[in-house]
Structures are given as C-alpha cells and as structure tokens.
Write a structure and sequence with these properties.
Chain C: Its main location: membrane. Chain C: One of its GO terms (biological process) is transmembrane transport. Chain C: It comes from Maritalea mobilis. Chain C: Keywords: Cell membrane, Membrane, Transmembrane, Transmembrane helix, Transport. The complex is a heterotetramer of chains A (about 525), B (about 475), C (about 290) and D (about 325). Chain A is an alpha/beta fold and about 525 residues long. Chain A contains 17 helices and 20 strands. Chain A has a 6-stranded mixed β-sheet, with helices on both faces. Chain A is globular, with a radius of gyration of 26 Å. Helices cover about 25% and strands about 25% of the residues of chain B. In chain B, about 55% of the residues are buried. By secondary structure, chain B is an alpha+beta fold. The longest helix of chain B has 18 residues. Chain C is mostly helical and about 290 residues long. Chain C is elongated. The two termini of chain C are about 35 Å apart. Chain C has a single domain, classed as MetI-like (MetI-like fold). Classes of the chains: A alpha/beta (about 525), B alpha+beta (about 475), C mainly alpha (about 290), D mainly alpha (about 325). At the C-D interface, helix 4, helix 5, helix 8, helix 9 and helix 10 of C face helix 1, helix 6, helix 7, helix 8 and helix 10 of D. Bound molecules: adenosine-5'-triphosphate (ATP) (2 copies), magnesium ion (2 copies) and nickel (II) ion. One adenosine-5'-triphosphate binds next to strand 12 and helix 9 of chain A.
Chain lengths: ~525, ~475, ~290, ~325
C-alpha cells in the first residue's frame, strides 16, 4: 500500500479546469518529483494532499492516505470542515518563498516549537528545537533569531526544520529551492536528500527545474497544462523522454553551443572599464558613520565589438550593479568607462547623450520591463528620443524593422503589454533594445524568468542579431550552462571583485578561483 | 434650595467695573455686587447700599446716606470711603470701566461721614441715579478691587464660591447679609453656547431655567411642556438696521426712506425670532413711558419705495454690504432683510463678522454700509447726538434737543423732548428700526421671582424662590 | 474603447455599481442646482415655513419657508465644491511632491517626508481655526483647511505608488532612452499610479464632505446665506424635537453621499492591481 | 534603539518648533486688537495703551516669540488677556477633560473596532462580514456631531440615563465626571471604531493571503487559529499607523463634540478665546493640540518599532 496516492484528481476554478484526472502515488520512503511549467498545476496537486486548496477550488477524485491506517478521502469533501489531522504531523510541507513563508514577528525557535506543541508536546524543549536546527545545518543558538536576521537559504532550512518537527512520514516540498541562488540551492537539495533517506520519509518534490528533480528523485511525474503527460523512473525519463513536451524540457536543460561566426579583427576595444567602483552607503543617524557595502570593487575589463562577454557569480556579488554603471544608469564612486570614444564615470561626468544611444539593455523580468499603460508602439518609439534628427516616419520605420527582426508582426504593435506572452515580451524588449542599433547590448539574466521551453528560442534570436549587427554583448547569468553555450569569454565575480577572467572553456574546465569551483559544483545537470 | 441657571455666554471675568461683557452683570449684578442704588424689574430706581438721598435744587449735588453694618464678603467693612474709592477709580484717567461715560459728569466725591457721601456733577442729569444703579457703578473695596476679576468680593446677598472655567460659576447665600433674606442657598450659572445643547440640558432636567433662552425657535417645545414656563418680557435692546449715514447712497434721505418702506418688520420678527419681539418705529423701547408709536411713518409699501429709489437715481437699485455680527437676530434677520431689499433692486452682500471684527470695522472704523445690531443700553437715544458715532448721523436740531433733554428734570418736559427726538429719528429714517428684542425666559414652573424683563443687564436672584 | 471597457468592467463589482450610481445622481442634482432648482433658494417666505411635504415641495419647506429639496441640491453643490476643490488642492500640490520625493530621493525626499509629517500634525480643524482667526469663517476657509490636510495624504499615496513603479524595469528602460526624472514621472509613473490616486480621491472626497459638515457645524465653514449640507444640518439641529425631518434630510443626504463615494472607492480599489493598492493607500477620516 | 529614539525625539522637537513658529507668526499678523476688545467700545486711548503695555504687545515680535518659547519650558505662558488667569492653568484645567475624552475614545474605538474587524475578516465573504462592513460604512458616513445629538436625544433627554452634557471636575466628583464623559466618548469612538474595523479587516484579509499563514496551516493549525496566532499581530502593524493618524482626528473630534455636550474642553477654550481675540490663549492651546498629535504619532512610531523586530533591527538595536 502506498503512503499517499491521488486517483483521478481534477480541480476547477469556476468553469476553468486547471487539473484533470491526475493519478499519482508516493510509496513510503520513495522520492517523487513533479515537474512542469509555471501554471501547470504542480502546487495545486501538492495542496490537495494537504487539504489546503483555495476555497474557490472545486476538486473531485479520490485521495488515499495510509499512515498506519488506510483512509480514503473523497476530494469533493476537501475544505476547512473536513477533519484532517495529518497536516504538520504525518505530512510536512516546505514552501517556495523563503522570504515570506515565515512569520516575521516571531522568533524561529517559537515557530518550530509551535509544531511541536501541536503534535509532539513531549518534545517541545529548547534542546529538541536546537537538535532540529542542527539537523538542517543551522546552529542551535539561532532559535532566538527573527526571520529577517537570516539569509534566504537559512530561512528555507528553518522551513524544513518546521516541516520535520512533527516527524512526518511524507514531506512535500513545493519548489523549495527556486528562489535561492545556485550554491545555496545545491546545499538545500543535498540536505533534503540526506534527511529524506535518513528518516525514511516519502518525498514529493516539486520543481520546474529538471536538473533539481534529477538530482533528488527516483521517480518523475511530468505535468503539462493540468494534465499528467508522462511518469516513470527518473533515469528512464531523462535519458529517453517519450512525450514531445518532456523532450523539450530535457533538451532545454542542456543548451548547446552555437556555432562561431567570423568577426572582423579589431585592436581597439569597444568598451574599456577601468577601476570601476560602486558603494552603497546607508546612514541611519546623522552622527553615525555610514554602513558601506562595496557592491563593485575596482573592476576593470575590456570588450570588443561582436564579442560576447559572460559575467557570472553568486547572488549579490555585484553583477547588476556593475552593468548599471556601464549603461550609465548609476554613477560610479571610482573609476571610469571608456566607450567608443566617450568617457564617463567618476570625476569625468555622467554618460554623454552620444554614448547613451550606443548602449542598450535587456532586463530579466519581461513582465515589468514594459509600462502596462503604454502601447507597444509608443514603448518601442521611446528610445528614439535620443535620435531627434529622425523624422516621425523614419522612427516608425526603425521600430517596424526591429519588430520584424525579432520575429513578430507589426500589427501587434497596437496592443498593450498585457496582451503578450512572456516570450513575446522578451522579444519585444530585445526589439526595443535594438531600435537604436546600439554597439553594446547588456543582457542581465535575459532568459532566467522565461520558461525553459522558450529560453532556447530567445538565445537563438540573440545569436542571430549579433551575427547580423556585430553588437557586443555583456551577458549576465547565473546559469553556467547557458553562459557556456553563448559566450566567448567569461568573468567570474565575487564580493564585487572579478576573481577570474578568461575564455569560457578555459575557465569552466579548469577553474582556479574557489568561487568558480563552488559554482560549478552546484550545477544540477541531468 | 438651589437654582441652576443657564447662560449662553461665559463671562470673560467677574468684575463688572472692568468689562463691557453683559455676561459679567448677568452673574454678579445685584447678587454679588451692589451699587448705591439698584434698578427693579420695571426699571425704577430703588435704594440699595444708599438707603436714601437728597438732590440739590440745581441738580448738581447728591447726598447719600449709606446702609450700616454692611461688610464685604471677605469680612472687611463697608463705608463711605469704599464708595469714594469705587467712584474715583471708575472715573480715573486709567480706568478700565466700560461705561466711563456714566462717571464723566462727576466733578467731586466727598466723604461726609462714615455713612454719608456727597457726589457733585457738572450738569444736572436726569438719569444719574439710574446710572448709579447699573452694574458698572457697583461698590467695590480697595482691598479686593484688583482681584475681583477672578475672585469677586462684593456686598451682595450671594458670595462667590467657585468658577469652573468654561463650565459654571457657583454662588452661595451670604449669611452675613444685612437686609431682606434671599430664598436660595446656592445659585449655579452654567454656560452653554450651543442652543441645541441648551435645549437638551433643559429637557433632561439639568437646568432649572434660562433667564434668556438663546433659541426662540425651540420655545414651542417648552411651551408644550408642563414642566416649564415660557415668559416673554422685554429688554432694552432696540434691534436696528444700522446705516452709515455718510456712505453713498445712504447719505440720501430718499434711499433711507425707500429702505424703511420696504422693511417688513413682522416677517423679520417671525422669521428670525419666531414671533418674539415688538416692532419699533424709532430708537426707543416700546415699554418705556416716553415711547411714541411711529410704526407708520413709512408703512410697508414696495411701490413707494421703488419710486423713492428712482427719485434718488437708483431705478435699478444698487449693491451694498450688510455686515452681520454673530447673534441669530442679525444672521437670520440679515437673510430676510436681504430678501426684502431685493424686491426694490438693492442687492445686499451679507458679510458675517465676529464681534471683535464688528467692533473694529463697523464701530470703530465705520467701514460699513449696513449692519444689524441690538442696542441694549437703556435710554440710549442720546447716541444719535454724537456725529462721530458709527451711524455718522449729524443733525444739529437733534443734537440741541438731546442737550436740552439731558439737563431737563421735569418729567413732562422730558417726555415731550424725548417724543420730539424719537420723531426726528423716525422721519429721517436714520436707521432701519426693526424690533425690540424680547426677553424669552424659560424656567421651571415651580420657580417664582424671576425677572420677566431686563431693564438692566443682570439676573437679579434676590426674590427667586421655589414653591414649597 | 479600452478605457471604456475597463470602466464598464468595474460595474461587475456591486459596491462600485451602487456607489457610482448614487454618487452620479447626487452629483448631477448638485450641478443642476447651478442652473435650476425647483424653487429659488434665496427666497424667504416666512408664512410658508415648516411646510410638510406636498406636491409642490416634496420634502417640505424649512424655517425660512424655502423648499428643502432645492436647498439640498444647492447645499450638496457647496459641499461637493468644497470637497472637490480640497481634493484638487491636495492633488495639485501633493502628487508632484510625492512624485518628486520618489523620483529624486535623498535629502529632498527626506524633506518632503518631514513636511508630510508636519502637516499631518495639523488636522483640518486646527488649520481651519487658524485661518478663521485670521480671515473669519467661510466655505473657502474650510476648503483650504481640508485641502491642506489632503496634501500629505496625496503626497504619501503618490510617493508610495511611485516608489513601487520606480523599481520596475520599464523605468530603467526609459532612463536608458534618455528621459529625465520629471519626464519619466509624467510619462510612466503618473499614468500607472493614476488609478491609485483616483481611488484616494474618491475617499478624500467623501471625507471632505464630512469634514465640511463638521467645520460648518462649529461655525468655521460655510456661512449663511450660502448653504451646504453641513450648515443645513447645523441649522436644523435646534428644531430637531419640533421638526425632526428638517435635520433628517440633510443628515441622510450626507450619509448617502459619503457612503456612495466610499463604496465607489472601495469597488475601484478592489478592482485594482493588489500590489499597487497596498503601496500607499491610506484611509483616514476627517 | 537609543539612537533611534534620539533621532525621533529630535524630529518631534523640530516639528514642534516649526509648528510653534508657524502658529505664532500667523496669529501675530492678525487684524484685531485684543486690548480694545477687552476694554469694550468706549475705552480711551490711554487705557488701551496701558493695557497693551501690560500685555507686552509693544515689544517686537521676535522677542515675544522667544519669551513664549521660554514660557513653554517653564510652564509660564503668561496671563490670559481676557480671562486674567495664567494661561498654563487654563489649559491644564481643560486638559482634564480633553485628554480623557480623546484617550477614552481611542481606547473604546480600539476595543470595539479591532475585534469587529477581525470577526469580519474571519467571515470574509459571508453574511456576517457584509453586515459588519455595511454597519461600518454607515458609521463612517455619519457626521459625528449629528450622531452625538441623536445620542443625547435618546439617552439623556428621553431615557434620562446619562447627563446631556456638562462636566464636573474630577476632584469634585469622579463618578459624575466619568458619567459626563460616557456619551461624548461613545459619540467620538463609534465612527472611529467603524474606520478601525474596516482597516483591521482589510489588513487581516491581506495578511491571511500571505505565505506564512499557509505555512502555519501546514503545521496543522486551523484557519482561525492561524489567523489569531500569526495573522492578527502582523495585521496590527498597518492598523497602528492608521490609529496614530486617527488620533489627530479624535483631537479634532473632541472640539466638535465639546460643542454638542457643552463640555469645558480645549476646543471651547480656543473658541471663547478667539471671540475675545485672546490670541495668547489661542496660540498656546493650539500648540498643545498640535503637540499632542505629534507626540502620539511619535509614540505610535515607537510602539511600531517595539512590535516589529525588523524595525528594531533597522533602528540599530
Ligand atoms: N486561487 C486560485 N484561483 C484561481 N485560479 C488559481 C488559483 N490558484 C491557482 N490557480 C490557477 O491554477 C493553475 C495551476 O496553478 P498552480 O499554482 O498549481 O501552478 P504551478 O504549476 O504551481 O505554477 P508555478 O510554477 O508558477 O508555481 C494556474 O493556471 C493558476 O492560475
Ligand atoms: N540600491 C541599493 N542600495 C543598497 N545596497 C544595494 C543596492 N543595490 C544593490 N545593493 C547591494 O549591492 C550588492 C550587489 O548587488 P547586485 O544587485 O549588483 O548583485 P547581483 O550580483 O546582481 O545579484 P543577483 O544575482 O541576486 O541579481 C548586494 O549586496 C546588494 O545588497
Ligand atoms: Mg507553484
Ligand atoms: Mg542582479
Ligand atoms: Ni475606445
């Protein structure tokens, strides 16, 4: 008898069917992965096992639970009124957002103690709480801390400790690592794996990241738009995906290197950065000396036309800060930028208009990069402010060219942003970046927010554009596989400093710096 | 026995010899402080601290005999020196007495004995004894004169107990009073400015009465309530549409006459005062024996008014401002008046002003066209003889008449002179004469001895008592 | 078209629909009083006072014999005018301040925040007392006093909304396009916080009507012969026991007006992007 | 924490200083002569000048501002021009009414508003919620003076349970003083309670959607348990800010309600002083009101920092 299973589970919101006929079983001690794109219904599946579905959800089907004794639950009965003693006791759950999943006003020790008080009052002691904290690789004396005094990874460990406190037989983890950076993510996944096997728990692990699932689970279920498309042993599925959807997922998880193209040789670099420094100072009271975070510390590098330079590093190392200075969005506290005959930076002055039109940027989040109240047409025209010499018709023409370049049709331009999908928006963001025909394009995590299946297309588009226009790319990403696939050279950044710099193959194959090794180790490949 | 009496305004302080506010007198007059004479509820002069007096033949020297055995509430004794001190203080150069004019004619005050005093005045004065009976002329002691504002010490049948600022003043029977005993043991004056709150307080039984209830519109309720008596008396308040006789176009008699023709007094009394008030045709109190009925000098006649206005060159009317001080009679009356004057094309811009501003702009600077105000001084027709008074009415004939009146003692002559003066004012339509302000008292039916009229400002409680 | 559809979609929200219809009726009646009322409001007819409802005066007549319904129309107009202009003052001064604070940051932002706190310490009634002491009471004073209090309210909402907009990438994209801070504030920030401001404006409008009533009641607001709902209520208070309906009509009108505006504001708020609505909206009464 | 305190206290002091300057100089340019008003219309010029000198009106404005500021510290605010009593004493006397009234209303509105708001949030979308929020809508829309009047008519005039107004000093008869404040406090508190109930409901509904409530439920807490143990405290944070702001309105409300109940509070003091053109009293009393508001807002900030560990941290704990 399996620990828990779903039989023909369907969920509707009003007349919108979001899950249909899901069958899924979790054996005692088995580690089961559930993958699928955003919105495919992964979380709802997990929540139905916890009887925590939103009130407006209408479920049908059967849920079997077997903790010592077999219980059959009619899914239509799910809801607040259904007696459900398993939550926190036999079933523990960890949620995605470490930042918001803990009560900000309560010490973490007390939050863990609350579970014990509910389910294991005999164990509700400081010592036991300390033990739980240690089990998830935290120090026992951290129990007095408040959530905001912990890093994201630490918070996620607290969430795990809370889920474990009731000594559950089944642990559900809904994307517990997606909000964490690579290195931390790896740590948490290893921790879950270790604990699950040590405690002999059943595990339902939810992720959109095939790599993470592969690292952790022995069985995989694949969800597409509320339907189960494939399931089975993880090695089998990863090696030999049957369904086209699964195949796409697997393919996207292993980006392939694009072919080289010829570039005119040049001596003068397009961009030359010299000792660029950015500090954030936070002064609380006027008599205090300020807290200084050095986000970018004496960074120097050069970039030639037509070249792609990768920038990697752990979260918070200063990648975005650096790129914003290069784009002239932020002013530097030290050092300067030499770009295509213009100089700006500390002690030189702000970015000149002439340089501004040669540098563009594509942002990470396609949803926030367009003003929701502005038609695409106007949004794309906006950069052409920098070219007052063009007539309205010429500007229009430029916009149309750019849109066609990114593979979209001109008649879409009358729409507002909300009428586009994420992938389309990112294409439009790229279109906006190239209407000026810039010489340098800064790409800050341009594909991280996109579903894996779309990533490949956008990367291919970027590659094509570079080939046509010969732009230089400064490509920021935390995904080392992507970086390896698209860049020529790579810089590794840590604590504001460039710690390693070289041809991408050299750096990745023979890492020198400690952080590079860590980053490479943390990779979850399938 | 205790009496809880409501008042609209709280006195700024309690010294009647140092302030114009009527609220001061309404608490202390005749109760706490006494003068040489006192005024009874019909306006007659009676002995008080002076038991009797004699007047020289030429009318310039008064000799008073004082009551004996009287002490002030602080225990100090009362004698002629106190009288001399009080009168000299009131007429001194730096006096802050609000009615310095009363004392202006005094040339000398002389102590004849501890219980005898003589006062000499420059010219004979018909109303001198009356004036000595007013609140501004009460006798104070040198020991306490400076502190009377917060801790009044007088000779009256009640003494001061407590003043809860913003709320109430408490008086208590003076056991050492020489004279007729009063019936009440305590009197509490509670200050309620909001008419609605006043009404609620009465209905809820928190108060025994209001000597002058602030909202005539609510009297209907009290009249229907068997617990209360509504007593309508008269005051000395002539409510007039004061007119700036020097300002264009009011310097034209025909314009003033036109206004007089178009004023519908009864509508104003009904609309503003809910029927309480007596129409007047000149600046004189109807209850006064000298009063002449001049209501029909300019009868209500819109056509005539238009004619007069046209004759003055204002066929299509004109615009003017009407400044209105806070009392209801002014604010409501102003609206009604504006509607009436509109009939002949006079468009009034209503400007609401606070008293302080009224005093400054209208009274002092004479910067106004029209205003509505009640002149509450008794027998104050003499103000029209002052060309600098804010009416700016300058009539030599009238001035001579008043001069004569002031020095005339013979009752019949005085009456004739007053009648002539009244008629001149009515004919000249110096101001619009509207109505005599009524005193609308509301009090518990079991109370007796409350004054229905108020010939002087004050609430004389000496005769007030509860039935059984 | 899109605007209209968006607007129409609000009607699916019942409280918005009710609030909108009621407010619209009241506002139209108030505006109508500019050109027409069933009976003149400046006429005084003492003989006809306290008339009970009839075909001619369907809410009866007041203590001057004026038609109550006409008075309500005119009174609502004054109340509305005070409230609208007060909101206008608040928005015209407050919104730019808020945008400036969010866009500029640094010392300027701190200064504006200080200023906000400072003005918050002066409830409308205190400002009204000061202004009245200086210039005497009038509806304009009430309007200015309420308006001054509205300034920090709108500055706060605008800044809160603008701050959340400034973190978005499209603002950076606009900066890359060479737009200056004020251009971004006008082109991108303002349109995106507009719905937030409109919601706050409806709420402040309702509060303005209440505040005007309170100020008129203690004599700091509208003065006769002008009329406003608050003043009518005040004047009717002393007839309450004898003629209760005199106070009921203006009282009801105020309650309905305020509730209608509030319901409309709530409905709008519910329809809005929840992230934005949390940014700075405050709901305080005057 | 101490640093934060000092910073905020300096802010409060600065605010008060600016407020004092604003009030002083605004009222100083006022038209109207207190001396003439006090002495009445027949006063002579000499008497006027004498009084002006006595009141210090002949000194330059800056000197008088300085003196006034000093007076604020020493408690010597000078004499009331119209009432001839120390202003500080007048104000203190009125505070024995205004303070209990404002604070009483704050406490009462909290005691009523918060539980109702929580109740409504718990029943979100159900009949109870709709009913409570409908009531709250009415509560917010009723002009408070009108509500006060209805209370008087019902409970004082008709039922005679409570006095229709007036006040007895605490020292004289504490029970009567308390009784006198019941109706005014209710009149002030109920509309405020309606606002608080709404704010509390909105805030709690917001919090209920947050992840940590779901976490709490995953621990095995029921929906209501989770709301009570984790939701309410978090929801209180934004409510506290509103309560701080509301206090300003309670102060304003006392001025209005004092009128209905003829209570000798600060508002009445100010109005009498204004009609007497007694600006010395007006400015000091106004500053006291503003000071109260500023101090309450400061206390709310402080409380906020105490309740929210994130702020305590930021405050340099
Ligand atoms: N409370 C709700 N009301 C209406 N629709 C909902 C609700 N919760 C989820 N949905 C819809 O149900 C579908 C599945 O949601 P679910 O949260 O399970 O997706 P997911 O696979 O977990 O996605 P993600 O990777 O983004 O977390 C989505 O289309 C979502 O919009
Ligand atoms: N506006 C700011 N004020 C204060 N500190 C900041 C600010 N922006 C960034 N920082 C700090 O500077 C450091 C570098 O931040 P940055 O955003 O450049 O990192 P990143 O490498 O882009 O990280 P991620 O991979 O998470 O995007 C971090 O410690 C961050 O907290
Ligand atoms: Mg999910
Ligand atoms: Mg970044
Ligand atoms: Ni359209």
């Amino acid at each position: 008898m399996s620990l828990a299973s779903l039989e023909n589970l369907s969920i509707r919101f009003g007349d919108r069917q979001v899950l249909s006929n899901i069958n899924l079983r979790i054996e005692a001690g088995a580690r089961v992965g559930l993958v699928g794109e955003s919105g495919s219904g992964k979380s709802l599946t997990a929540l139905s096992l916890m009887n925590l579905l939103p009130e407006s959800a209408e479920a049908s089907g059967v849920i079997h639970l077997n903790f010592g004794q077999h219980v059959k639950i009619d899914a239509t009965q799910l809801g607040e009124d259904l007696p459900f003693p398993y939550r926190g006791a036999q079933i523990g759950m960890v949620f995605q957002e470490p930042m918001t999943a803990l009560n900000p006003l309560m010490r973490i020790g007390d939050q863990i103690g609350e579970v014990l008080a509910l389910h294991r009052p005999d164990l509700n002691t400081k010592a036991h709480i300390g033990q739980l904290l240690e089990e998830v690789d935290l120090r026992a004396d951290m129990h007095r801390r408040y959530p905001h005094e912990l890093s994201g990874g630490q918070r996620q460990r607290v969430g795990l400790a809370m889920a474990l406190a009731g000594e559950p037989e089944l642990l559900i983890a809904d994307e517990p690592t997606s909000a964490l950076d690579m290195i931390t993510q790896r740590g948490v996944i290893d921790l879950i794996k270790r604990i699950a096997s040590a405690r002999q728990m059943g595990l339902l692990f939810i992720s959109h990241d095939l790599g993470a699932v592969a690292a952790l689970c022995d069985q995989i279920y694949v969800l597409e738009k509320g339907k189960l498309v494939e399931h089975g042993d993880s090695q089998t599925i990863l090696k030999n995906p049957q369904q086209p959807y699964t195949q796409r997922l697997v393919a996207a998880a292993k980006p392939t290197k694009r072919p080289e193209f010829s570039r005119p040789a040049q001596r003068e670099p397009l961009l030359e950065i010299d000792g660029l420094t950015r500090q954030f100072r936070q002064k609380r009271y006027f008599w205090q000396s300020p807290d200084i975070t050095t986000a970018v510390d004496q960074v120097s590098f050069a970039l030639h036309s037509g070249e792609t330079l990768g920038l990697v590093g752990p979260s918070g190392c200063g990648k975005t800060s650096l790129s914003r200075m290069v784009a002239g969005l932020d002013s530097a506290q030290g050092g300067s930028v030499q770009f295509d005959g213009h100089r700006f930076g500390h002690g030189v002055g702000p970015i000149p208009m002439a340089a501004r039109r040669e540098i563009s940027m594509v942002f990470q989040d396609p949803f926030s990069s367009f003003d929701p109240r502005m038609r695409m047409q106007d949004a794309l025209l906006e950069p052409l402010h920098l070219m007052p010499e063009l007539t309205t018709a010429q500007k229009q023409k430029r916009v149309h060219e750019a849109v066609q370049r990114v593979g979209l049709s001109i008649d879409m331009l009358n729409r507002y942003p909300h009428a586009f999908s994420g992938g389309q928006r990112q294409r439009l963001a790229i279109a906006r970046a190239i209407v000026l025909k810039p010489k340098l394009l800064i790409l800050d995590e341009p594909v991280s927010a996109l579903d894996v299946s779309i990533r490949g297309d956008v990367l291919a588009l970027l590659h094509d554009l570079q080939e046509k226009f010969g732009m230089a790319y400064l490509f920021i990403s935390h995904d080392l596989d992507v970086v390896r696939a698209v860049t020529d050279r790579v810089m590794v950044m840590d604590h504001g400093k460039i710690v390693e710099h070289g041809k991408v193959e050299d750096v990745f194959d023979h890492p020198q710096a400690e952080i590079t090794k860590k980053l490479l180790d943390a990779r979850l490949t399938i | 026995d205790e009496l809880r009496l409501g008042m609209v305004l709280e006195p700024p302080h309690l010294d009647p010899t140092a302030g114009a506010a009527a609220a001061i007198d309404e608490v202390v007059y005749a109760n706490l402080f006494e003068g040489l004479t006192r005024i009874d509820q019909n306006g007659a002069v009676l002995p008080s601290l002076a038991t009797d007096w004699s007047i020289s033949d030429d009318g310039t020297r008064y000799e008073f005999t004082l009551k004996e055995g009287v002490t002030f509430h602080d225990g100090t004794s009362f004698d002629a020196e106190d009288v001399k001190f009080s009168l000299d203080r009131a007429r001194a150069e730096d006096s802050v007495n609000a009615q310095k004019g009363i004392f202006a004619p005094i040339t000398n005050v002389e102590v004849l004995a501890t219980n005898k005093i003589a006062i000499e005045i420059a010219n004979p004065q018909g109303d001198f004894l009356f004036n000595l009976g007013r609140g501004d002329a009460v006798i104070v002691a040198p020991e306490s004169a400076e502190t009377n504002q917060t801790n009044p010490v007088g000779t009256g049948p009640f003494k001061f107990v407590d003043w809860q600022q913003g709320s109430k003043v408490i008086l208590e029977k003076n056991p050492d009073y020489v004279g007729d005993d009063v019936y009440l043991d305590r009197a509490i004056f509670t200050f309620i400015s909001d008419p609605n709150a006043a009404q609620n307080a009465m209905l809820a039984g928190e108060l025994d009465g209001f000597a002058n209830f602030p909202a005539p519109e609510t009297l209907e309720i009290f009249e229907a309530d068997p617990r209360f008596n509504v007593v309508v008396g008269s005051t000395e308040g002539e409510t007039i549409l004061a007119t700036n006789n020097k300002a264009e176009p009011f310097n034209d008699l025909r314009v003033r006459q036109a206004i007089a023709h178009v004023i519908d007094r009864q509508a104003i009394i009904d609309g503003a005062m809910f029927g309480y008030g007596t129409p007047i045709g000149t600046h004189f109190a109807p209850h006064h024996p000298y009063y002449v009925d001049l209501l029909n000098t300019y009868p209500h006649d819109v056509a005539k008014a238009k004619e007069l206005l046209a004759a003055a060159g204002y066929e299509s009317g004109f615009k003017a401002t009407l400044k209105l001080p806070p009392p209801t009679y002014a604010r409501r009356g102003g609206q009604i008046l504006a509607a009436q004057l509109r009939e002949i094309g006079i468009e009034l811009e209503l400007v609401n002003v606070e008293w302080a501003q009224w005093l400054e702009d209208v009274f002092t600077k004479k910067d106004y066209d029209l205003t509505i105000v009640s002149h509450v001084e008794p027998f104050d027709i003499g103000i029209y003889a002052n060309p600098d008074y804010y009416f700016q009415y300058d009539n030599v004939v009238f001035q001579a008449l008043i001069e004569k009146l002031n020095i005339t003692n013979d009752e019949d002559d005085r009456k004739a002179l007053a009648a002539a003066a009244e008629t001149i004012l009515a004919d000249d339509a110096v101001n619009g004469y509207l109505f005599q302000l009524a005193k609308t008292g509301v009090w518990d039916t079991r109370l007796s001895g409350m004054w229905p009229n108020s010939p002087v400002e004050g609430n004389d409680l000496t005769q007030v008592k509860w039935a059984n | 078209m899109r605007m209209f559809k968006q607007f129409a979609s609000n009607f699916r929200h019942p409280s918005f629909a009710i609030g909108f219809v009621l407010s619209a009726v009241l506002i139209v009646l108030a505006l109508l009083s500019l050109v027409w009322t069933p009976h003149p409001t400046d006429g005084v007819n003492i003989a006809a006072r306290f008339g009970s409802p009839s075909l001619e005066h369907f809410l009866g007549t007041d203590f001057f014999g004026r038609d109550i319904f006409s008075m309500l129309m005119a009174g609502a107009l004054t109340s509305l005018r005070v409230a609208v202009l007060a909101v206008g003052i608040g928005m015209v001064v407050g919104v730019p301040l808020g945008l400036l604070a969010a866009g500029h940051g640094g010392w300027l932002e701190r200064l504006i925040l200080r200023f906000n706190d400072f003005v918050f310490a002066f409830p409308a009634i205190i400002t009204a007392i000061i202004i009245t002491t200086l210039f005497g009471p009038s509806a304009i004073n009430a309007m200015i006093a309420i308006g001054i209090f509205n300034i920090p309210v709108f500055a706060r909402v605008a800044r809160g909304g603008a701050l959340s907009i400034w973190t978005l990438d499209y603002v950076d994209a606009a900066r890359l396009s060479g737009l200056k801070v004020w251009q971004i504030s006008v082109r991108h920030v303002l349109p995106n916080i507009l719905s937030l401001l409109i919601v706050q404006a409806t709420i402040q409008l309702s509060l303005g009507i209440l505040a005007e009533a309170g100020l008129s009641y203690i004599g700091l607001g509208t003065q006769p012969p002008e009329t406003s709902l608050g003043l009518m209520l005040k004047e009717a208070q002393s007839f309450f026991l004898a003629y209760p309906m005199q106070a009921v009509w203006p009282g009801l009108t105020i309650i309905i007006f305020v509730m209608a505006l509030n319901l409309m504001g709530d409905g709008l708020r519910d329809q809005m992007d929840p992230k934005l609505s949390k940014a700075g909206g405050i709901n305080v009464a005057g | 924490m101490v640093g934060y305190l000092i910073q905020r206290l300096l802010g409060v002091a600065l605010t008060l200083l600016v407020a004092a300057a604003l009030i002083f100089f605004l009222l100083d340019v006022l038209p109207g002569d207190p001396a003439r008003f006090m002495l009445g219309i027949n006063a002579s010029d000499e008497a006027l000048n004498a009084l002006r000198q006595q009141l210090g009106l002949d000194q330059p404005a800056f000197v008088r501002f300085g003196q006034w500021l000093m007076g604020l510290f020493t408690g010597d605010l000078g004499m009331s021009a119209s009432q001839r009593a120390p202003i500080a004493e007048l104000i203190l006397e009125r505070m024995q009414l205004s303070l209990p009234l404002a604070f009483g209303a704050l406490v009462l509105s909290t005691l009523i508003g918060l539980p109702l708001g929580i109740l409504a949030a718990q029943n979100q979308g159900k009949i109870g919620d709709a009913g409570l929020m409908g009531l709250a809508q009415i509560g917010i829309a009723i002009p408070n003076f009108w509500f006060a009047m209805l209370l008087v008519v019902v409970f004082a005039v008709t039922l005679k349970w409570l006095p229709p107004g007036g006040f007895v000093p605490w020292a004289e008869n504490p029970a009567a003083a308390f009784r006198a404040l019941i109706l005014p406090t209710i009149a002030l508190a109920l509309p405020q309670a309606a606002i608080l109930a709404r704010v509390m409901r909105t805030s709690l509904v917001d919090v209920a959607r947050q992840d940590f409530i779901r976490t709490a439920r995953a621990k095995g807490l029921s929906k209501n348990q989770a709301l009570w143990r984790h939701g309410v405290r978090n929801a209180l944070l934004p409510v506290m800010t509103i309560m701080g702001l509301q206090f300003a309105f309670l102060i304003a409300g006392t001025i209005i309600v004092e009128n209905v109940f003829y209570l000798p509070g600060l508002g009445r003091l100010i109005f009498t002083a204004i009609s007497a053109r007694d600006l010395f009293v007006v400015r000091s009393a106004l500053l006291v009101l503003v000071g109260l508001v500023v101090i309450i807002m400061f206390l709310v900030d402080l409380l906020y920092a105490l309740v929210d560990p994130r702020l305590k941290k930021r405050a340099g704990n």
